[in-house]
Amino acid sequence: MESKAVDQQPLSKNAQKKLLKQQRYESKKAEKKALLKQEKKREGERKRKEWEEKLAAAATEQEKQQLIESRKCLRKERMEQRSHDKEKKMTRLTNAKQNGQNVVIDLEFDNLMNSSELHSLVQQIMYCYAVNGRCTSPAHLWLTGCQGEMQDQLQRLPGFDKWIIEKENRPYIEAFQDQKERLVYLTADAETTLDVLDPKHIYIIGGLVDRNRWKGLTMKKAEDQGIQTAKLPIGMYLKMSSSQVLTVNQVVEILLKYLETRDWKTSFFEVIPQRKRCEDDNDIEWKEETEAKDDHEFKIHDIEREEEVEGKDDHKMKIHDIEQEETEEKDDHEFKRQCMS
């Protein structure tokens, strides 16, 4: 009876808040998934209608046949191009393991985050991998201290097992024990400002969401381990509207952009969202110079959509293509039958 009473004890206010937050998160996630499904369905119906109208507008049977053949050739070209792009990406990432700048994402903080924060970090890691794969000269990415729930969530990502990225269960301090003098922890609390990226150094980024709760944590960790620390030279080029804490994927993208351009200003202005910056004369000037460029938020959305496609394993992609082809062939056959009858 006593154990039953203990089991039925009401949740604390803190626990109730966490539970409510998790329920809200799950509800939002389900709504978003349903909306995306509806949008995908509407888009499919729109494309099918366009195709049927195009076929109906054809004057002769020969023209219709040419349209069908043209569509098949186009689909084949798309599949071949996608396969070619994927091969090139794999080659770049494989070469980066030998020649790329070493960038480590430290995943030893999973015990300080709740499930939704861990999920957010997993999404950020997915963006990091996607952006790195698109770079002409990608970095050599590492995930260290990858254990527990963090590891479980990463394993659930489609195609994660095939990622060309170093997955290390050990902490970075053990994985690089023979190269400790080359380790540099990037933290906004550091006194040293990073001037350039040294190819011999191994740069570490703290894998932590909502760092405002844990201010100074990564700095203290690096000091306790006796490794170097440095901060990005953000203050030299722009003024942040809040703290200089950025998400993991933003830091990785800044480093990748710098490796490409060797220009910190360009890297910061192209990656850091406008909402995080105080607009001044430099900002206005930069906006005028880059008016034609895509907004960073749209770029992240594009990466997410691309990774949702590329991250799926080959089998699922093939199944999808086969199903789509079968559907289109059925449409073609049905249309032909109607024309003949």
From TrEMBL:
Q: Does the keyword Glycoprotein apply?
A: no
Domain of life assignment: Eukaryota
Instruction: Spell out the Basic and acidic residues composition-biased ranges.
Output: 23-51, 288-304, 312-322, 330-341
Which GO cellular component does the record give, naming just one?
Answer: nucleus
Record flagged with keyword S-adenosyl-L-methionine: yes
Give the record's keywords alphabetically: Methyltransferase, S-adenosyl-L-methionine, Transferase
Q: Where is this region: Disordered?
A: 1-51, 288-341
* Name by which UniProt lists this protein: tRNA (guanine(9)-N(1))-methyltransferase
Species of origin reads Anisodus acutangulus
